[in-house]
Design brief:
The protein is mainly beta. It has one helix and eleven strands. The strands form two sheets. A six-stranded antiparallel beta sheet has the order 1-2-3-10-5-8, with no helix packed on it.
Length: about 150
């Protein structure tokens, strides 16, 4: 019985060791070394994929989103829950069908927002800002007033 346990423990250890050896290396990225691309639907905004493919269904993704001061993301919603982390700058986020800054709340670096699928929301960059957006794809955006 003891021999069986030792063998089973060794087998599990070997399996776990081979799994960890097959793992890929971590992705380490900062806003300073990211490869930025324009975001056509948000004037002046840029994005940089950190990991994954935001368009792939069922797959985890994460990307940076950078906006100039005054940049606006018109009211919209997503098909899946998204997590937003304010990396730098000051962001205004609001719920609703109009981008009314007076009804938005201000958030700074370190703030984490989890926005459920289907919630109509908007964002305004009070100062230049960088956000980190993550979720499970596909990352779809549907505009409320189009």
């Amino acid at each position: 019985m003891l021999g069986s346990r030792v063998f089973l423990t060794a087998l599990v250890f070997a399996a776990l060791t081979s799994i960890s050896a097959a793992a890929t290396t971590p992705t380490i990225l900062t806003p300073d070394n990211a490869t930025w691309q324009p975001v056509p639907q948000f004037k002046g905004w840029q994005m940089a994929v950190i990991t994954g493919n935001p368009a792939k269904a069922g797959s985890y993704y994460a990307y940076f989103l950078k906006a100039p001061a005054g940049g606006k993301a018109a009211p919209h919603f997503h098909g899946e829950t998204e997590t937003v982390v304010v990396i730098s700058g000051t962001a205004l986020f609001g719920i609703g069908d109009t981008a009314d800054a007076s009804k938005a709340k201000e958030f700074g670096p370190g703030t984490v927002l989890s926005i459920p699928a289907g919630i109509h929301h908007f964002a305004i960059a009070k100062t230049p800002m960088v956000l980190e957006i993550s979720g499970i794809g596909p990352d779809t955006t549907t505009y409320v007033n189009k």
